[in-house]
Known about the structure:
alpha/beta, Purple Acid Phosphatase, chain A, domain 2, 17% strand
Amino acid sequence: MRWTSRVAADPLALSRETAPVFREFLAEVRSSLEAHPWPVLVDLPADRAIQVVGDIHGDYVALASALKFRRERAPPDRFVALGDYVDRATRSQPDPASLPGGSLWTVAHLLAWAAEAPSEVIPLMGNHESCRRLPVPGPTFFREIRRIFGPEEALTIYPEVMDLLERLPLAARTGNGVFLAHGGIPPHGSGPPDAWRRDDLALLEGLLWADPEVGYQDRGIGTAYSEDRFRRALDDLGCRMMVKGHAPHHSGVAIFGGRLLTLHTSDLYAGFGHTGILMAEIPPIPEIRSARDLRIRRVQDGSWQPYSIRWD
């Protein structure tokens, strides 16, 4: 059985294996991504429901639960993850003395599914996946790999993993009008999506680091976008609403007339915003106008239950 199949079934399948075995898994993923490369902006049909999760930050338990929910539907739903899979390993404090290896198993599980079903499971890039181009303060992913495989092996495994993460799409767009990206909107002057490039730092900053001006917190990178600028960007993209991650204090909150919803799918941020480990379903209806047309779920007692978000 291929390693991608094993890891898709069990996020911890590699946790007892050696560095050479982990590299064998990475080689399988690379072969699949090279055979089925994603565009910078992925266009998704609206013929089936799409499950969307927000920032995960090493919470492979929540990720595995969300993917299980998706594949148990008939037919299986499509699945989009909004970035930030690594660093700040969760189900713990952000950076404890004995940091668990959550980020590595999260990335492995998600990449395994992307390799097995590249048109069905779409992981988008977050700002933590672009850290070699726009640095992120206080990263912990490299330290996790050192702790798991040792310092020498980490020096080769880390860049191999990051190379795969840098191949991820920057955004997605559904056929019924939802724009999906980690943080914000494309900056003015970005041009049409077919001209977007993964190495365009201004585009990366806009899509992965920007925040709405509502409750804006200066991170030292990224900019604030107004509701007017947001609406014009969506019009240019042919969309009516956006689902994003990135800003913990907005998690589970819909702003800009319900047209901008933020999600986090990590117990590290379960107490932020409107609280909870959240997932949104984009139903297969002709047109999505606001978050009111989505189905929001939160983990309660180990299962995904309907949940009412907050409207600001």
